[in-house]
Amino acid sequence: MQRQYVHVGARTIAYFDSAPHDRSLRVLVLIHAFPLGAAMWEGQVKALPPGWRLIAPDLRGFGGSTIAEPDEAPTMDDYASDVIDLLHELELPAPVVGGLSMGGYVTLALLRRMTPRAVVFAATRASADSPEGRANRRGMLVLVDREGPSGVARDMMPRLLGATTREEQPEVEPLVRRLIKQQTPAAIRGAVLRMMERPASFDVVAALAVPAIIVVGEEDELTPVDDSRRMAEASPGARLVVVPRAGHLVNLEQPDAFNAAIRGFLGQL
Ligand code: MLT
Predict the structure, then answer these.
(1) Of 116, 182, 213, 258, which cross-links 97 as Cys (Cβ 3.0–4.6 Å)?
(2) Residue 93's pLDDT is what?
(3) How far is the CA of 33 from the centre of ligand 1 (A)?
(4) How confident is the model at residue 69 (pLDDT cuts 50, 70, 90)?
(5) 76 within ligand 1 shell (Cβ under 6 A)
(6) Is the pLDDT at 7 greater than 80, yes or no?
C-alpha cells in the first residue's frame, strides 16, 4: 500500500491506499489502534474481495498525519472529523468503515455523524472508561512523558498480544514494537486524553441500521470477548466472530482468520 496525503486547511492527513485514484472500486476504511499507526493494516489488502479498495488513515499526530494545535480539549470527535474530512476530500460518500480498539471508538464517534455502507468493529468496546481505567490512563500519560513510545510499548506489549502469539509467533512482537516506536509522544498523549473522555456508545450500536461485523481475539485481555458480546447483544443484526489463538491485535496475530472474516462480510454486501 502506498502512503498518500491530503491537505485540509493547515493540516495534513496521511492514509494508506491500496488503489489510489481508482474511483470504480468500493471502499473499506479501517482505523488503527492505539498506539499504532495505519501501517498496522498492511496485511489486510488480502482481505479485500475483487472490486474493493482499502483506505487506512493515520489519526492526527500518528504516522504521516500532522497534529492539530492547539489541542486544548481533545475528544474522539476530532479524530472522527479528520476521517470525515478525508472522505470528503476523496469523494467517498458511503464506504464501509471500521477500526480496531481505539479505531472502533473513532468508528462509534463517526456513526453519530454519518451512515456508512456497513461497519467493522474489531477488538473494541462500546463502554466508556471505568474510574480505574481512567486512573490507568493517567499513569500512561506519566509514562509517555518519562519514557516516550518505547516505555509505552514495553508496558502494553503483554496485553496487546495473546499468550499463543507470544509463545508461537515471536516475530510479531518486534513488528508491533516498531509500529509503536514510530509514533510521537504528542500523538500518544493526545490519544490517551481522547480515550479517557470518550462516552459510552451502546445507543449508537443499538441504533445501527446497516450491516455490522464484530471480530475479537479469543485471548484478548484489553477488550475481552465479553465486550464484543455486549456490543453484539445491543445490535442483534451484527455478526460476532471470535478468532481462536489471537489476543488484542487480532489482525496482526491471526491475519488469515481475520481476513477471511472481513472478506466474507464484504462479499455479502
Ligand atoms: C487500543 O488498542 O486501541 C487501545 O488499547 C484501546 C484502549 O486502551 O482502550
Answers:
(1) 116
(2) 77
(3) 6
(4) low
(5) no
(6) yes
Q: pTM of this prediction?
A: 0.97
- 76 vs 213: CA distance, rounded Å: 21
34 pocket-lining for ligand 1 (C-beta < 6 Å): yes
Read off φ and ψ for residue 97, nearest 5 degrees: -125, 140
Length of the chain in terms of residues written: 269
Angle (nearest 5°) at CA 176 between 106 and 150 = 95
Quote the CA–CA distance of 151 and 155 in Å, as a whole number: 6
Q: How far apart are CA 91 and CA 5, in angstroms?
A: 14
Q: Running DSSP on this structure, what letter comes out for residue 94?
A: S
Q: Does 101 sit in the ligand 1 pocket, CB within 6 Å?
A: yes
- The reported pLDDT for the residue numbered 157 is 95
Strands 11-17 and 52-57: antiparallel
Question: Tell me: the pLDDT tens digits for 79-110?
Answer: 999 999 999 999 997 899 999 999 999 999 99
Pull the grid cell for residue 36.
499504532
For 159-188, give the DSSP string: HHS-HHHHHH-TTHHHHHHHHHHTS-HHHH
Confidence of residue 67 (pLDDT cuts 50, 70, 90): confident
Using the structure block, give the residue that is written with the C-alpha cell 473494541.
124
Q: Are 80 and 203 in contact (CB under 8 A)?
A: no
Which of 31, 32, 34 gets mutated to test ligand 1 (max ligand atoms within 8 A of its CB)? 34
Amino acid identity at 157:
M
**CA-atom Rg of the chain in angstroms:** 17
Strand partners, 56: 16
CA 1 to centroid of ligand 1, rounded, Å: 24
